[in-house]
Amino acid sequence: MTSHGHVAISCIDLRKQFVLRHTRSLKEALVWLAKGRKGDLSKKFLALKDVSLEVKQGETVALMGLNGSGKSTLLKLISGVLQPDGGTVRTRGRVAGLIEVGAGFHHDLSGRDNVYLNGAILGMTEKQIDEKFDSIVEFSEIGEFIDTEVKFYSSGMYLRLAFSIAVHTDPEVFLIDEILAVGDEPFQRKCIAKIKELSDMGKTLFVVSHDLDLVATVCERGVLLEHGEVVMDGEVHAVVAELRRRSAHAESEDSL
Amino acid sequence: MAGQTDQLVKPGSGHGLLDVYGHRFLLKLLVRKEIKVRYRGSVLGLMWSYVKPLVQFLIYFVALGIFLNLQRGTPNYAIYLFSGIVLVNFFTESLSNATRSIVDNRDLIRKIYLPRELFPVATVWVSAAHFLPQLLVLVGACLVVGWTPSVLQLAAVILIFVMVAVLGTGLGLLFGAVNVYFRDSENIVDMIVMVVTWASPVLYLWSMVQKVMGEWFWIYQLNPMTVAVEVFHWAFWEPTLRGGQLVNDATPPGMLTLWLPVALLTTLAVLFLGQFTFRRLAVHFAQEL
Lengths: 256, 289
Known about the structure:
A: Rossmann fold, B: mainly alpha
């Protein structure tokens, strides 16, 4: 189904502006309107400036950059959570995010109920969840606790189950945001092995992480964002080296 | 959903309420979750769905029926009262929960794209799940006092149930979306909820309003909930009356031929308005929450 060469994600001149609104009540807004819209109610902040990017099917791309460079915003635009203020973003096939695992979990439901609920939230059908249920539980190493309410889970168990559901959703494009730091080391290794397995299967991976050594082993291509602009796009090791150079440079400037 | 592999599509652009149908498995799970979670850790559990309206009913019956002696002029006043209360409860519960549903689910909405209409629609289904047991109690009570409804009246009950659900959904979409930007919305809805019990002939008879309002009575009739309650009275309360008890003005003139169609049209208009506003505002939900 997946063939190299087709475009999986296409971003053209993407612009995203955030309004840091101060007012939160109808009264303030009405007063502002009555005064003839004088003064600015809000501060604006440009998170992405004309970002263009194309990812082919089967590519593994690491999105890098310092905090506040717009990585998560770009990921949210691709997943459809946010809508761009300018430019277009288009995707091919089902896109699923391993973004903030466990966002759809409910503490008062059992692990089993949460597998179904979270699976459905991530776009799986009832049949798919039925088929993969055993595999999800096995991968998460939750075992007999699957029928216990999630609020009694340790934080490790919680994250393992959430990650396990997410990797079983089987989309064409995976968006991965800062979740490779899941659980203890053996489980982390298992997760990385699973992600590599996905990329070997020809899935498109789009990874955001601050763990540079890790993304260099998982991904082939690197994209460097700085202040909402793409400053470098190329082989992952070269991009990692460039980011290291830039942050070292920034540090030495700070210390001067 | 799947099978779009050979097409580039814009992420996050849905078809509004139509997408909810495509996600009906998720809708089912969301509804089930709400019902499970609602009475978590309580001993009586779902029984609270019976106990609360029952207490509410007793208060009104004692205060209005006995103290103010409304039951003398209105035969089977208990049935009259209860049929209105359950319907208004269904509406107010749908509306207030739907209004809060977007803000309550902010963790999810900020992180994962889903048709956001799912959340208000799910709350209306949950309210329906609490309404149905109350309806059964009502039917039981009606049967005890000798209820002989016609097929038309039974059909009207189903129609009104659907209409109130749609009305709750429409208003819920509207106020739920606005609530993301202005939390005043919740308070406006709290006020509507307070008014609605008294702005429909739940506790008193419609004819008392007509006496006061005279030729302006039509304004009162424009409220779709008023018509909904009147139709419920016609379907549940009137067929329990015996020959001698029959009131000749049990329903307002033109209720089925004029006011019911008007209420249905108003409801549809509200649904479209709600959906339209919701879609306009939903684009920026994730960044405003």
